[in-house]
Amino acid sequence: MTSVLRAQALGKKYGKRWALRECTVDIPAGHVVGLVGPNGAGKTTLLKLAGGQLQPTAGAITVLGGRPADGPAQLAKVGFVAQDTPVYAALTVADHLRLGARLNPRWDDAMARERIARLGLDPTHRAGKLSGGQRAQLALTLGLAKRPELLILDEPVASLDPLARHEFMQGLLEATVEHQLSVVLSSHLVSDLERTCDYLIVLVESRVQVAGEVDKLLATHHRLTGPRRDPDRLPADQHVISACHTEQQSTFVVRTDAPIHDPAWTVTQLSLEDLVLAYMDKSTAEDRRVALEVQR
């Protein structure tokens, strides 16, 4: 499997604080990848390392087989849309397109102008006068017209209203299909990932908790509800992701490739949000367990 991004024991330190540490991940080509995790998990740092805006303190990272930002050819392969969808407030929409053409050797001017026209953006308007959704669409247009092999988006719709988010994600999905891009999209909004992404990575405290194609992950994860039972009494092929108990009842999220035949359990499927929260809860529970052991 070809990788668009591969990191091994990757770390980034600011002074004495590690923003990312011991991160190992392998992102396959040909997918729209949702990168999700809590604040402080290291998502933005990982994406900036991939885009070449930051240099690693430890470990190694390759993007499309090369070092990030290692020369013009490597830079041309990667498009990046940051969280604040950066544009220049004093420049017009047309100015941005001219600047993109000057800076990017593979610039597709016809595509950029056609997309701007389709979005109804006036080329003479300054970016500072555009709405948040329009600025986001302009930033996405700049990233797409670069004709990258990999497009990286860091929380691009975090500050947008629901309609602007929907329009942005719809445009991204259409462009991905049309131009056969690999995409890595970081977001807190799992509902957006459900509509767009076919591959998921959950990152918590720099560590990948789960990674895989969304359809396969949803098919192999289940919620079990039934009489109270200790996790160690479950079959060995049912890997417990999270557990919740009352005096009478247990609820587990498990990962298994085998059918579940135990009549004591009510088995339900998970949504993508359920899956993400289960892995985040697993990490939190593990942190609590370690803290208790340290206190002892």
TrEMBL record:
Which Gene3D superfamilies would you find in this protein's record?
P-loop containing nucleotide triphosphate hydrolases
Give residue ranges for domain ABC transporter: 5-230
Tell me the domain of life. Bacteria
Task: Write one Gene Ontology MF term.
Answer: ATP hydrolysis activity
Q: Does Transport appear among the keywords?
A: yes
Listed A to Z, the keywords are: ATP-binding, Nucleotide-binding, Transport
* Protein name, per record: ABC-2 type transport system ATP-binding protein
Q: Which organism is it from?
A: Nonomuraea muscovyensis
- Taxonomy-wise, where does this protein's organism fall, top ranks first? Bacteria, Bacillati, Actinomycetota, Actinomycetes, Streptosporangiales
